[in-house]
Amino acid sequence: RTTTRLADLPGIFADGEAWKCGNPQKSVYDVDVLGSPVGEGALFVGVTHLRAGNVGDEFFMTRGHFHQRREQGEVYFGLRGCGLVLLQTEAGDARLEQVTAGSVHIIPPFTAHRLINTGNETLSSLAVWPSIAGHDYAALAEGFTLRIFASGEGYEVRHG
Q1: Which residues form the Glucose-6-phosphate isomerase prokaryote domain (predicted)?
Q2: Host domain of residue 43
Q3: What is the pLDDT of residues 2-11, one digit of tens each?
Q4: pTM (global) more than 0.90
Q5: How far apart are CA 70 and CA 73, in angstroms?
Q6: Is there a contact between 54 and 83 (Cβ–Cβ < 8 Å)?
Q7: CATH number at residue 141
Q8: N or C: which end of the chain has fewer CB within 10 A?
Q9: Residue 153: its pLDDT value, please?
Q10: Who's near 107: CB < 8 A, 6+ residues apart?
Q11: Rounded average pLDDT over 31-59
């Protein structure tokens, strides 16, 4: 199990002051990955458990990433809770899909992805991806083009 804490997410949330004031040891999400060999045709299977919470008015989210091998896709299966998967192309075109128990999401090749918990309980999602895909976090140093904030209607989408 890998745990990502608030301190591990500098620059991810829009409100840097709220992030600094948060408990740096607060667990934001855990990822459990089933071990698998790395090689052509091999798959990783993992479950992300993204806690409910906010930094300022922005919902907890995963760091998000492209694959190092951009041509590799991924599949998400919603297990529990409710939230969103944010998908963004290299050109910056972004869209959102609702994640709920039983939902299925195809993450196309050449697409960055991030989970966002818009609910009041842990959002859990199972992912399956090629073991050769790798992760590229640096490509998103400037962030995604969309941000999701709490509002009276549930959530509000704002541009970057």
Answers
A1: 5-155
A2: 2-159
A3: 999 999 999 9
A4: yes
A5: 8
A6: no
A7: 2.60.120.10
A8: N
A9: 84
A10: 73, 74, 75, 76, 85, 87, 113
A11: 96
